[in-house]
Amino acid sequence: MTRNQKIAIGVGLLISAIFLFIAFNGLNPALVLDSIRAADGALLAFGAVWYFTAVAVISLRWGFLLRSTKAVPYRDLFRLVCIGYMGNNVYPFRTGELLRIFLLQRNNAVPMARATTVVIIERIFDGLVMLTFIVVALAFTNIASPQIETVINFAAPIFIAALAVFFLLAAKPTWMLRLLQLVARVLPGAVRDKVLALGGDVIDGLKAFRSPIDLCGAILSSYASWMLEASVYWIVATAFTLNIDYGTALLVVGVVNLAGLIPASPGQFGVYEFFVRVVLVAALIPETIATAYALTIHLVIWLPVTLLGFVFLIRQGIGGFGGALARAREVEQEAAVQG
What we know:
This protein is an all-alpha fold.
């Protein structure tokens, strides 16, 4: 691990610690634990199981985005999505995405640049879905918070601009090819070939944008998967007997996922709890119960998929946490060489 990577990890842990301190400052830990104990355990267990419906649909979306490049069996997509979630929940630097890319290349012969392009598109779709949730929820609730406004103002330009760029590249692939050819003219032969091949793979990764069926499928499954995840938030809220509606659950999902742009520890611990609490307090939920709910819903959506992802990872034969991290670093190094 390089010095810069160690510094980045340290900064992320510090940011998480700061947000955790803010979230718990002034609260009585015993009262928070009492609120958690009072929650309906059966509903919490049901929410944890129901969460996998969202994972199943998000796997379907990956299939739509990849289908123009290569049809990948759904069972493989589901396993890789779980592994990706596990990696992001446990390792720094969004390592889960690197594991998905590595395993998709190894198991299904999908070039890394194409898989990486699709993964980036997924993140852009997710950001736009979150923005939609926030805008719709705010239109139908009386919730107002300066922190929510800050998240919107920061995230909206990033995702809208990124989507516009990808649509442009998908609609006009010859523009990118011409630009690459101009750049390649001044490069040595071996480097020129790699740059042109990389550009071709990126363009191939954008084929889903040029297929109305795949594009519609990806958009619909994006909204469906996150709406299913929002239903998990509502189920857990019901377990706590919180007086919030589904629209507030959509708002929580939108805000906490956009807040994921803030660099923090794996799993966004601290940042996640802080922003869940911000939304619920703005919805007039008492701080102690809001914090107890934030800790619980984080565990509900974090633990089951992390455990299942680890099981799937072991079955891939790359040696558990240590082996997975080593393979992820290999992917980083190979990507750097190809780039």
